[in-house]
Amino acid sequence: MEAEKDHSNTGIVGRIWLRLKSAIGNSITGVSTVVRDVIKVGKDDPRRAVHSFKVGLALTLVSLIYYYQPLYTNFGATAMWAVMTVVVVFEFSVGATLSKGLNRGLATLLAGALGVGAHHLACLSGKIGEPILLSFFVFLQAVATTFMRFFPEIKARYDYGMLIFILTFSLVSVSGYRYDEILTMAHRRFSTIFIGGATCVIISIVVCPVWAGEDLHNLIALNMEKLGSFLEGFGDEFFRTSADTDWDTAEKRKCLRGYKSVLGSKSAEETLANFARWEPSHGEFRFRHPWKQYLELGALTRECAYRIEALDGYLNVNVQVPAVAREKIEGACREVSSEAAKALKEMAVSVRTMTRQAALADTDHLLVDCHGAVKDLKALLKASQWKETDLLAAVPLFTVTSLLIDVVECTEKIAESVQELSSLANFREVDPTSSPEKPAPLAGRKTKASKPDVECPHPHVVVPVHDMTLENGRASYPAE
Amino acid sequence: MEAEKDHSNTGIVGRIWLRLKSAIGNSITGVSTVVRDVIKVGKDDPRRAVHSFKVGLALTLVSLIYYYQPLYTNFGATAMWAVMTVVVVFEFSVGATLSKGLNRGLATLLAGALGVGAHHLACLSGKIGEPILLSFFVFLQAVATTFMRFFPEIKARYDYGMLIFILTFSLVSVSGYRYDEILTMAHRRFSTIFIGGATCVIISIVVCPVWAGEDLHNLIALNMEKLGSFLEGFGDEFFRTSADTDWDTAEKRKCLRGYKSVLGSKSAEETLANFARWEPSHGEFRFRHPWKQYLELGALTRECAYRIEALDGYLNVNVQVPAVAREKIEGACREVSSEAAKALKEMAVSVRTMTRQAALADTDHLLVDCHGAVKDLKALLKASQWKETDLLAAVPLFTVTSLLIDVVECTEKIAESVQELSSLANFREVDPTSSPEKPAPLAGRKTKASKPDVECPHPHVVVPVHDMTLENGRASYPAE
């Protein structure tokens, strides 16, 4: 009996202890998961942590208006507009911050003036007519401005300004019904918004600036590099013998598939280009840098990526290419693929470093090896040595060949676009004195410029997973 | 002399008249351009005009707080928060409005409470310590919350709430330094925001609601239909004789290329799905409708579109297919293409109308004709009748064949996904009593359901350019 009681006692204590232990364990696991996530998000792009501190700094600075008596006397409760402006306007990149700040400032100025006008007009119609007329004005401008927000050109650049226009006009004109000092109010609203906006813009430019233009520039170069990495590894992967282990294959494929992000990078590129247009001259980028050309280059890269996606389909399926056909064509296919890869990677370096090799002045020269390889491949197909081959089994091989030739065509278009960009953006000309005939190996410059974060075990495939540019493009610049 | 003066006089009057005329002409042209644009934007999606009126209505209703004395006595100047909320929260779709309204409301409640707490804590540290401690709190929460906004899961659903959290916490805690009635302020802020948010939500649900879920549903079906339209016309276009005029070709191609929008519809789909999750049960859509499955179906459709993009490349190039090879394979290729088109269009109708034919219960049945066609094509390739053919010239033909087979494979995957969707979303079963063996022709139901806005002159190609769904998805739901 006693033993049982003792047991049940230990049982209760034990159970409580167990629960406590599991609760502590759970919370430790929870906390460690959060910590791991935080470290991951911060490590993916350290600029995020810096941005958070910048926002904190701007907010603290602006809230000084409340604490410092002379300033507070001036602005009173409207000081909160400054705080509000900082929270809403401060964006990840300089371009986004400038775009929102200018939109907000100009819209406030314009709508404030119109609101004061509307108020005075409404005042003329007497005590009963005033609210009716004011309501009518507010309704009318809200309908008109909301509708204007659907125009694609306005939506792209001035959407936030439109929102603030509706807001300020409504506030100023309607508040006028209760306050007589409406001019003071409009004036204070504008000044506080100006203070908040200026604080954001200055801090975002002065403290570790994040330039949307630079992100776009790097994204475009990175995307070309990713296509190059796929093509570099494609030959090995398509013609691989079964000696490789499955793990190797899976790992390699994952590395090859870096190009997948290119397929969906359109909206990120457009957003970045939109913000880049607002940015002042910085580094090697002038105020009117040819951002449009980057978009064109991006579109061509994406077109190439679609072809590569079709090629990738032939890695998935376990294609049983007859050995005879394979042997005939393998060398030429590998050659085309790796030459296209080389061209793409060289162009990526050229864009990233904003240089062009004198020897690569015309696109033909850049792709000369590529064209040679395609010619060899076509000659192989023409030869009449295919008669004994099982055609059905060889079809995937022909398709891959044909798609590779398509990819080379896309690469040509990309090369032309890079050419145009290099002349529009005045890329520095670099003369490789060592070997004037053939372009010097770019490996040294490349490692300096591209900084790949992850190196694949595959000797041929280096996929820099410096992807936050893309993610930021899509995620960190909402049009608030 | 007089004649000359007279002439110069007429000259001045004439010139003024000419300038005036050209100015009037210019402004008339300008106005007519604007009017045309307005009509176009409104016609593209009449819901835009309705949305504008809804915003005007909500704003006018909320501004009544200012005019109606009893209400104004209650809220005072904080009434402007209600106006502000309406401007910022009212979005195009119910889901977006609900998402922003709930985010704003909950974040205000939470941050208000924390702000009051921070204020009381800071008060304990005396007159000098208070601003220092307050600044520290504001800085800390701004840094932490801004950083949290970079987490992808938070970004997707609660980004706006995070923004409002920073805003409200800063406002409430900092204002506390100047006002003693901080609780009243926090309370008023919450009430006015609640009034504004509720007005938006109610109007957006009651007056001609725009459901993001429905838009997503239609977009997914439309995308499948577009792929179907391409495949339907592909056979004619690829194997066309040179008898067609160039104009015809250009026009047809434009119609065929409706599928291009599918390539970039990922972000629109994700945005719509994100908003759809917030929407209550409406029409045939339950609260927990399987929106994730739509995203999966959309991804598969896009994968198919990538293959089709590669196919489209073979329409661009002036491929000189040898007549012998062509004749052999043309029939089978056309068959595969049109069977895949039929399957895609039938699935599109099935999704759009949320029905499934009893006869189509398993995917194999739906694609049975398709598989037959592929088999025929493969048999043709296997035959040894190709020995005399110039292989190089026939390579494009083989590639098209191979890509068509790929497309059929993608279609199979799409069919499986549609199948899964139909069971998850409980599609109504329709039993075609007329012919239980073969599915009844869906033409009648299709015209009712799909409402194509533009009919191409090509008898085979019907491309409904009801594209505003996509545009709205990307453009009208910014995460403000």
TrEMBL record, chains A, B:
Q: Where in the cell is it found?
A: Membrane
Q: Which domain of life is it from?
A: Eukaryota
A Pfam family matched in the record: ALMT
Q: Where is this region: Disordered?
A: 429-459
Name a GO CC annotation attached to this entry. membrane
Membrane topology classification: Multi-pass membrane protein
- Name of this chain's protein: Aluminum-activated malate transporter
Q: Which organism is it from?
A: Trapa natans (Water chestnut)
